[in-house]
Design goal:
single chain, 3-stranded antiparallel beta sheet, 19% strand, flat, DUF3551 domain-containing protein, DUF3551
Length: 83
């Protein structure tokens, strides 16, 4: 009985763990607060995020896991021309 209770407690405690879903490609994230809190990191600017947040129980914030500047992503790849 005691082992069963410990096993169930372990299973339920693991089931409620959430993975981080912060996208390092975008500098701004939106936190949506509902029965389940979700982050949506797909915004280039705070203004884009705020426009999407209107009327929702949400907030915009800087992405703490942002991996670079927007200019880094837009830089075209170098093409090598072999002769």
């Amino acid at each position: 009985m005691r082992g069963t209770f410990i096993a169930l407690a372990l299973i339920f405690s693991c089931a409620t763990a959430n993975a981080q879903n912060w996208d390092p490609r975008y500098p701004v994230c939106q936190m949506l607060y509902s029965p389940v809190t979700m982050s949506d990191c797909r915004f280039e600017t705070m203004e884009q995020c705020r426009a999407s947040t209107r009327g929702l129980y949400a907030q915009c914030m800087e992405n703490p896991y942002f991996a670079g500047t927007p200019d880094d992503r837009r830089r075209p790849r170098r093409r090598h021309h072999y002769q």
